[in-house]
Amino acid sequence: MTSPLDIYNTGIVPELGISNLPFMWGDPGSLQKTLDAGLWNIGINDKLLKHNMVVLGVAAGGPYQIYSKKFPVYIPKDMEGKKWGISGSTASKATELLGGTPTTMSSGELYLALQRGTIDGCTRPLITGLGRKLYEVVEHLSVTNMAYFCSFLAINKKKWDSLPKDVQEIMKKAAKERDQEQLQRLKTFMKKAIELYKEKGVKVHVATQEELAKFKEKMIPVYEWWIGKVPDGQKYIEFTKKHH
Questions:
Q1: 106-115: per-residue pLDDT in tens?
Q2: Among 80, 178, 205, 240, which residue has the fewest nearby CB atoms (within 10 Å)?
Q3: Can you give the pTM of this predicted structure?
Q4: Do 28 and 105 belong to one domain?
Q5: What is the extent of the structural domain holding 142?
Q6: How far is Cα 202 from Cα 194, in angstroms, rounded to an integer?
């Protein structure tokens, strides 16, 4: 068995990138609701099955937030003309639409880049910022839940088929419980992490629904770009609109 991240497997199943579309979900609970409604059942699970992976459960991972040095980010205009350390082609497209200049770099490069002024800010999950001590080199953190990743629990198909049906049912149930437990753990962690950033002297802004709506409006071209890359991407976006 394994518990990989979806965004690291878009090379074999491009549809897995749906979770990384910016400003699609307002909070982790909204994403988990879409997953529980069957987002992966409309095609992703079948495609992973072709690679001998039986998916037992899918859980929301920590969302990406916006870190910045000398200025806060409240609305899209605040990102204009600034250099941003990002990861992935989707984040790059989003940053460009927001008027910023994206620079792809690993999380290990962010600290020095921010310290030296090579970039003005970056987008990363809260846990990355804590692990990389970004609170030492940024002044502001905007909690926007900009984009997500998911971890999924999977088992080799041959092994799965060898298990008794009653054991399979128990494992399916346990996997669903794991999904919900991860969501609760994530919510608890995010609250604690935000308080920790404040204790470290970072000015934290939690985006309002009105502010998030302005960001999402700017993202329409990103969704269209993604649909152009993913043959059946439209049905995933439509499903998300109905179940979040």
A1: 999 999 999 9
A2: 80
A3: 0.93
A4: no
A5: 64-147+199-227
A6: 9
